[in-house]
Amino acid sequence: DDAAGQAAFDAIIAQDSRIEPRDWMPEGYRKTLVRQVSQHAHSEIIGMQPEANWITRAPSLKRKAILMAKVQDEAGHGLYLYSAAETLGTPRDKMTEDLIAGKARYSSIFNYPTRTWADMGAIGWLVDGAAIANQVPLCRASYGPYGRAMVRICKEESFHQRQGFEILLELASGTEAQKQMAQDSINRWYAPALMMFGPPDDDSPNSRQSMAWNIKRFSNDELRQRFVGMIYEQVKVLGLTLPDDQIRFNEETGKWEHGPLDWNEFKEVLAGRGPCNAQRLARRREAHEDGAWVREAAAAYAAKQARKTE
Ligand code: FAQ
């Protein structure tokens, strides 16, 4: 019954152990996981678009092969995550329907345009970098299928981050125009990357409960500050700068600090009014419609195989 289920659940959480799909879990726990994991899956899938924009224009065959592999990895991440969410009882078709109907969230970051080749570098370094900072602690998330999916995803994200940093390093040691292109792209991606960690802690309605359930291990601000400290050092290797002159390590609090972020812009993007929201959703919808014949053919084939074995 529910009381026994709740007691067993509480004991697992208290031991910092794992909840598995067939275990009893509170409805709120299930709901918040479906919310976070499906949003995460959608982010990976929508996140393919800004980079796919540059595949045909990559500056060399080698760069093109690497970028294609990275975009394919994002598709794979989306699939593991949809599978993890499905173990909680929500079918993937339903999640996809919500996404293309504009009812589901995905990360704010993917609503910004990729204007130059340097953006492939800045996305790898800053966006994948922020993703890793946020996701390494999620490898220990209390829900088993989610935590296990995160382990592999984080390994692949590390490779993505290196390739982005290397793109910027090469541009930064190139001509003055190339260096300028790299700097411009860092200037545009810095603040949106910091916003990936979510709203400030005092405006984050889900954090407290998610931390109590061992889904989130650190708060949005804690992870954002840690990330700022990392990129503050890394940008020096590039010989470039971050567009924020207020970054400093506060000896008293032991925390990194950064300049103010425009949370109105974040809210606008979440409300569907960012620079590329409409374009991203239209493209996703179009891809879904274009793929209808594949789904129909697969279903017809499966039905035929089922009849054969009857
Ligand atoms: N964008 O109460 P909180 C990637 C929403 S990495 C949009 O703090 P929570 C890799 C939030 O959902 C990107 N919405 O929420 C890649 C909530 O709304 P709701 C994906 C955001 O869940 C790289 C409301 O604001 N990573 O894809 C954002 O405790 C390159 C209040 O916020 C993940 O999803 C945002 N940035 O904390 C792919 C990581 N922030 O649902 C391709 C897993 C907040 O109540 C290329 N997720 N919101 O309507 C998480 O860790 C958490 O969900 C947070 C938000 C930290 C994102």
TrEMBL record:
Source taxon at top rank: Bacteria
PANTHER family cross-referenced by the UniProt entry: 1,2-PHENYLACETYL-COA EPOXIDASE, SUBUNIT A (PTHR30458:SF2), PHENYLACETIC ACID DEGRADATION PROTEIN PAA (PTHR30458)
GO function terms (MF aspect): phenylacetyl-CoA 1,2-epoxidase activity
Gene Ontology CC terms, in alphabetical order: cytosol
Organism annotation: Arthrobacter caoxuetaonis
EC number assigned by the record: 1.14.13.149
Protein name listed in UniProt: 1,2-phenylacetyl-CoA epoxidase subunit A
Organismal lineage: Bacteria, Bacillati, Actinomycetota, Actinomycetes, Micrococcales
InterPro entries: Aromatic_CoA_ox/epox, Ferritin-like, Ferritin-like_SF, PaaA, PaaA_PaaC
Keywords, sorted A to Z: Oxidoreductase
